[in-house]
Design goal:
The chain is mostly beta strands. The protein has a single domain (2-87), classed as 3 Solenoid (UDP N-Acetylglucosamine Acyltransferase, domain 1). It contains one helix and ten strands. The strands form three sheets. The protein has a five-stranded parallel sheet, covered by helices on one side. It has a three-stranded parallel sheet with strand order 3-6-9, with no helix packed on it. A two-stranded parallel sheet has the order 4-7. The chain is globular. The termini are far apart.
């Protein structure tokens, strides 16, 4: 089973009990990513491990973002991102 834990500036990972996190990591494939307040994820979006999405960024429906990416504030992601890096602009580019 895959488990995605979204960390957010306001709620952070402290909301999850440490024991629960340890159990999830032990038994499952766990991804951690950060989605800032004000970011918009439209429909079905897949986000890889260690990815950061900035405030006001928009990710379109049916988009996959690979791991270790940074999506800049206000960027608009309209197609799959397959290489790690920093993406900014409208549409988002490396």
């Amino acid at each position: 089973m895959r488990v995605l834990i979204l960390a957010n500036i306001d709620m952070g990972l402290y909301k999850f009990r440490r024991e629960l996190l340890e159990e999830l990591v032990k038994e499952n494939e766990v991804y951690f990513c950060h989605v800032a307040v004000g970011a918009h994820l439209c429909g079905t979006v897949t986000i890889g491990n260690a990815t950061w999405i900035g405030a006001g960024a928009t990710v379109s429906n049916n988009v996959n973002i690979c791991g270790e990416c940074t999506i800049g504030a206000g960027a608009v992601v309209v197609k799959d991102i397959t290489e790690p890096g920093t993406y900014i602009g409208v549409p988002a580019r490396i």
